[in-house]
Amino acid sequence: MRYMYLISAIEDGKPPPQQLMDVIGKQAEQELASGRMLSQGGLLPTLMGAARVTLKQGKLSVLDGPFTESKEVLGGFAIFDFATREEALASAVDFMALHAKYGEGWEGVCEMRPMFDETGGCAAIEGVATVVA
């Protein structure tokens, strides 16, 4: 089952601590080599070309970054392939533990989400009904 981690944090204009980035880079190399991590990436600050295209009540609007009304913004993602939800959750906890240890006061969220599979459906997850698109 594929899972996406969506990492969000308060955007304060400061880059993450270098030690944290080094540790995350090493972990990403290991995860990619193992085949568990399929893709990953960090996002530039919202003031560097970000935009939101919104559809509300049938009308489209475009808002250029930075997004001052947002408390947290998406800062990165990773896609993994895990055998179980428990394995995926343990990995997300380990990833956030790196932030606690090396992030010097960093606070944020790692949202773990199962992904639709290639057939357009979502494999059954314990306690959750199967979804078909």
TrEMBL record:
The source's domain of life comes to Bacteria
- What Pfam families has UniProt attached to this entry? YCII (PF03795)
Domain named YCII-related: which ranges?
Answer: 1-92
**Family the UniProt entry places it in:** Belongs to the YciI family.
Q: This protein is called what?
A: YCII-related domain protein
